[in-house]
Amino acid sequence: MRNLVNFLLFSALSLALGLGSAYYSVEHGFALVAPSIGSWKSWVNAGSLTADPYTRAHIARFGDLPITSGSGLTFMASVDGEGRDLSSACEYEIVARPASAVWWSIALYDSDGQLIPNKAGRHAFNSQNLTVLPDGTQRITLAPNARPGHWLPSGEDQDLMLVLRVIRPLSIEQQRQGIAFEGLPSIQRVSC
């Protein structure tokens, strides 16, 4: 009888660990399939025909329509530069340098992946409508209330997610290998 109880406990523990690790891997990824660079994470094989099973499951679970890996990459951030969750209660500054790509955009979503309704009707900026400042940077303020300059409204009482899409980076192979990832925008909390 004792062997049966031990077997059942071992089976239950194994099942819980197996399902838990599979859920975490599909939901959040791990370094081999979804490397993190600062605040940003990318499922680098999402648009590839040879995508791994975790990437395929992630795409199916969230209903994404990924950009083919030969055309571009998508990066997501739900934390600031210090690892704190992005919240609509705080103000952030996103600092970027012009990307070496044909086109790119940065959009703001709630934690469920939905655009945030706002009176300004503003949800994103892209390489065509951001001004390059004299110091060579491009800056976006993320806040619930209007700010001067490039401002993305963050709504109220919700967690946030930024999505950066880079279309036709000049060196897609370097991007995939992580060589050029250090040029991603920084996300700095200004106040909370």
Largest sheet: 6 strands, antiparallel
The number of distinct helices, counting runs of at least 4 residues, comes to 3
Helix content: 10-25%
**CATH architecture group name of the domain at 70-191:** Sandwich
**Poorly predicted parts:** none
DSSP strand count? 10
Q: Give the name of the CATH superfamily of the domain at 70-191.
A: Domain of unknown function DUF1214, C-terminal domain
Spatial strand sequence of the major β-sheet: 1-2-3-9-5-6
Question: What average pLDDT do the residues reach?
Answer: 79
Shape: globular
CATH topology descriptor of the domain at 70-191: Jelly Rolls
> How far apart, in Å, are the first and last alpha carbons?
58 Å
Q: Give the ordered list of helices and strands.
A: HEEHEEEEEEEHE
What can you see in these coordinates?
With 192 residues, the protein is of the alpha+beta class. The chain has a domain at 70-191: Sandwich (Jelly Rolls). It is 22% helix and 28% strand. The protein has helices at residues 2-28, 53-62, 172-177; strands spanning 36-37, 40-41, 72-77, 91-96, 101-110, 124-126, 138-143, 151-153, 160-169, 186-191. The strands form two sheets. The protein has a six-stranded antiparallel sheet, with no helix packed on it. Helix 1 (2-28) crosses helix 2 (53-62).
